[in-house]
């Protein structure tokens, strides 16, 4: 009887220890997720999908032979119906350079310096946080002759927004803040955050007078604490460059700030020239 009581006590103790261990592991997991969310919420904020919204798509690309245009998960002709593009003509070695700007961490200035040195005009797609926190850099973008487009105010998953009123507010709040800062109107170029979209979104943007731009070349450059090496960046950005490329880079990338001068030189040596998204829509 005594041995049975002892065994029961040991069993209960082990169960309690196991339960405590599981609770600690769960707390650690949730805390880790919480820290990550706080760190990236200004740039990677996601909305909960709305019931009844159109089917969401994630913009994606498939690459073939080096130097050739990739295929998108929608064709050029399909996207054209919604005033949307992802790649230019296949007949000329032209690059349309764009940057997504979610927050400022000291890398936009060297990017602007490199663009100025090479006389390259780019488009910066900005969110509300960037406008609020880095107005002087936004003014410099305009002063240097760059275009500033709309990346929505809160960087939400716009495909989850089924209300036209809510969609327009995300867009118009960027327009209003930009005009307040610069005294000029925002260029009607739109890039869906994280490439998440549906045809209803594209139609709403078109109705607001926007041209939506995805991309035909990008690489994983947005993790601030896990930046690609110079070699990794060149392997992707030189190996996959192609005629009519709409290139997406992030202005938050330390690697981009360090390599852009050399990258532009290498693209020029490969015979590429640079045009703007404004050129794109008028060609």
Order of helices and strands: HEEEHEEHEHHEHEEHEHEHEH
Distance between the amino and carboxyl termini: 92 Å
Shape estimate: globular
Number of helices: 10
Poorly predicted runs of 5 or more residues:
1-16, 18-53
Major sheet summary line: 5 strands, parallel
Percentage of residues in DSSP E strands:
5-15%
Radius of gyration: 23 Å
What number is the mean pLDDT?
86
Structural class: alpha/beta
Helix percent reads 40-55%
- Number of DSSP E strands: 12
Offer a concise description of the structure:
The chain is of the alpha/beta class and 283 residues long.
Notable features of this structure?
283 residues; alpha/beta; 5-stranded parallel sheet; 10 helices; 12 strands; disordered N terminus
Question: If you had to describe this structure to a student in words, what would you say it looks like?
Answer:
This protein is α/β, with parallel strands linked by helices and 283 residues long. The protein has helices spanning 2-44, 76-80, 108-118, 128-133, 135-143, 164-182, 199-207, 230-239, 254-269, 277-282, and strands at residues 57-58, 61-62, 71-72, 84-85, 94-101, 123-126, 147-150, 189-190, 196-197, 211-213, 245-250, 273-275. The strands form 4 sheets. Strands 5, 6, 7, 11 and 12 form a 5-stranded parallel sheet that branches. A 3-stranded parallel sheet has the order 4-10-8. A hairpin with an 8-residue loop joins strand 2 and strand 3. Helix 3 packs parallel to helix 9 (254-269) and helix 8 (230-239) crosses helix 9. The longest helix has 43 residues, at 2-44. The radius of gyration is 23 Å and the shape is globular. It starts with a helix and ends with a helix.
């Amino acid at each position: 009887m005594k041995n049975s009581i002892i065994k029961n006590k040991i069993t209960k103790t082990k169960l309690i220890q196991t339960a405590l261990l599981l609770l600690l592991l769960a707390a650690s997991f949730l805390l880790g997720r919480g820290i990550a969310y706080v760190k990236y919420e200004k740039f990677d904020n996601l909305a909960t999908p709305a019931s009844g919204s159109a089917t969401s798509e994630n913009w994606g690309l498939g690459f073939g032979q080096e130097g050739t245009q990739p295929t998108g998960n929608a064709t050029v002709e399909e996207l054209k119906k919604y005033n949307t593009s992802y790649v230019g003509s296949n007949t000329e070695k032209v690059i349309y350079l764009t940057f997504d700007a979610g927050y400022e961490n000291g890398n936009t200035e060297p990017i602007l310096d490199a663009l100025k040195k090479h006389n390259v005009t780019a488009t910066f797609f900005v969110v509300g946080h960037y406008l609020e926190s880095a107005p002087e850099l936004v003014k410099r973008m305009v002063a240097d002759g760059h275009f500033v487009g709309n990346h929505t105010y809160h960087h939400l998953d716009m495909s989850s927004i089924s209300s036209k009123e809510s969609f327009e507010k995300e867009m118009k709040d960027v327009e209003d803040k930009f005009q307040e800062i610069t005294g000029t109107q925002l260029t009607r170029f739109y890039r869906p955050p994280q490439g998440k979209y549906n045809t209803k979104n594209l139609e709403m943007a078109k109705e607001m007078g926007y041209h939506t731009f995805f991309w035909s070349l990008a690489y994983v450059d947005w993790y601030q604490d896990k930046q690609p090496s110079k070699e990794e960046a060149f392997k992707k950005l030189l190996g996959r460059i192609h005629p009519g490329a709409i290139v997406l880079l992030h202005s938050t990338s330390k690697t981009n700030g360090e390599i852009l001068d050399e990258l532009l030189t290498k693209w020029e040596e490969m015979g590429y020239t640079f045009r703007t998204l404004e050129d794109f829509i008028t060609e």
